[in-house]
Amino acid sequence: MAIDELPEGITPSNPRELLYPTPENQSVVFAPDSGKFAASYPILQNITTDSASIVWALNTPSTGWVEWGTTPNLGKFARNSEFGLNPYEQDFLAARITGLAPNTTYYYRTATCAFSYRSAYDKTCESAQYSDVYTFKTAGPNADKVSFAVMNDTHNQIKTIEAALDRFDELNPDMLVWNGDLCHRYPSSYIVKTSIANPCDRPYAAERPVILSRGNHDRWGPFAHKFTQIFTPWIQSNPRFRSLGYNVALRFGPLAMIVLDTADTKPDTAESCQGIYSSTPYRELQAAWLKEALMQSEIANAPYLVAFCHIPLFDHDPKDGKEHTNGELKWTPYHNAARHFGPLLDQYGVQLLIAAHRHKFAYSEATPERPWAQLLGGGPLLENATCIYAEANARELVVTCEKLSDRSTLGAWSFKPRF
């Protein structure tokens, strides 16, 4: 079946969904009949100055762990054990490594053991299967330069994802920002395994950490409620914000990065939501967190400050906006997220906001009223998709946006240090 077709017998509930097929008949690269317990390469995430998380997909119910160390000999172990039980999962395993040092390179590999329960005294744990040994580097303020690349609105489009990963391999950024709407909807773990965990048979995030900015479509479907299995939440140091997990403030060399979760576009009370969302209080709590995050010394003192979120906080074309029944606009600054986050970006010196959601490239320069620029990436079909690449050093932050289909440059911008 072609990747741009829906499976036979499946009729979309909305004609727009024909643009965003779910590859239900696409085989997982590490298929069960391959004899592999894992269904993906490791996915490195949640990089901080002192910790990191690793997630990998499974073909069979398994337990597992991560071996790590400062040399290829490894020697240390991490696994997410709780309440006296080691992990046992159907779809994804995860392990969080702690006690790390800033700006330091570490080595690791995953171990996966198929596990069968037959009765309380009759169960089998198979011998471990190991991944290759990979490396990663922790965050910290001491690096001379740092780079990142952004893809967004991939909506299960495997051709688009593959083209983006090809370009990232050429650019070799330090990290990858996946700026929301990774999938069009989340009916099951299978779509996550084939569209996120292992879309293109390569270890695209085994050494290059993925930083997620969650989109509105990343809340659609039953498995969206289990999203923490594929992207583990960030751990907030302030107990007040422990219920937040997809917003973070990071410092990499001269660059400070703020990641926000704009949640859903529709009001919580909209009939189509059927009471499943609580986006407004979620954004309100994030706004309180954001103010504290922007005041942290490592963020406030960074030469460059860039924010990321899926839904734009500034409308490039108000006439293109869509109005909901209660009068709240979908795109404009009247959107709930813009009201909560925008004034704080103004106040604390954010230079650039990188967003998505509109499925087309757009750039707006900073103005006296809005002192931050806004850059939107395009997608999801390959002809509209973009690659955003940025590199920061002591002299400047240079950001480039290009079309993925032909590598033509859509724009390039330079930002000087804030001080």
Map the helices and strands.
Layout: E1 43-45, E2 51-57, E3 62-69, E4 76-78, E5 92-98, E6 105-119, E7 122-125, E8 129-130, E9 134-137, E10 146-151, H1 158-171, E11 175-178, H2 189-197, E12 210-212, E13 248-252, E14 255-259, H3 279-295, H4 297-300, E15 304-308, H5 336-347, E16 352-355, E17 362-364, E18 373-376, E19 386-392, E20 397-403, E21 409-415
Parallel strand pairs: 10-11, 11-12, 14-15, 15-16, 16-18
Antiparallel strand pairs: 1-2, 2-5, 3-4, 3-6, 6-7, 6-8, 6-9, 10-19, 13-14, 17-18, 19-20, 20-21
Helix pairs in contact: 3-5
Question: What distinguishing features does this structure have?
Answer:
single chain; 419 residues; alpha+beta; 6-stranded antiparallel β-sheet; 5 helices; 27% strand; disordered N terminus
